[in-house]
């Protein structure tokens, strides 16, 4: 069961999504250290969301579909806003860390991210975690480590792209591509719920 939990966490954490694309974008625009703050917030936010859903899954059964729909709308709007911010980011080669998404942005994004809610609800349901707090604690712990590593890998990839970028026009193109992908993901998420 632990291997199945780890593979589930890896599949959901490493696949492209809003948080991973933003981690990549921050590292490519502002450096790995700045992305690490965002990654830390996103990892802690996600695992806290997972624990809350796991602890309250049985009480949320009747209100969950409505809550997910509204969270989906709020999350989609937030992801579109983040995509717009990435697309319009200053392509200057000088980094201004004050304008990069930070720990709090990462934390909040997970609570507004429809992919995070789907991953949490799917994991709690698939492994029947609402009936076993011991398994829930292990799953949250596994997910924390795997999620952190996965997002760090996305940030590391962004850092590698940053090393290849030598002019502002190239940074602008990367920002527009990453921001556009975020907006497309948000649109896909909006039509899927």
- Percent strand equals under 5%
How many helices? The count is 8
Number of domains: 1
Helix share, percent: over 70%
Question: Topology, please?
Answer:
Layout: H1 2-14, H2 18-30, H3 32-60, H4 64-87, H5 103-112, H6 114-126, H7 133-164, H8 168-192
Helix pairs in contact: 1-7, 2-3, 2-4, 2-7, 2-8, 3-5, 3-6, 3-7, 4-8
Structure in words:
With about 190 residues, the protein is an all-alpha fold. It has one domain. It is built from 8 helices and no strands. It has helices at about 1-15, 20-30, 30-60, 65-85, 105-110, 115-125, 135-165, 170-190. The mean pLDDT is about 80. This is Putative threonine efflux protein. It is a multi-pass membrane protein. Its main location: membrane. Keywords: Cell membrane, Membrane, Transmembrane, Transmembrane helix. GO terms for molecular function: amino acid transmembrane transporter activity.
Please outline what is shown here:
The chain is an all-alpha fold and 193 residues long. The protein has 8 helices and no strands.
Annotation keywords:
193 residues, mainly alpha, 8 helices, amino acid transmembrane transporter activity, cell membrane
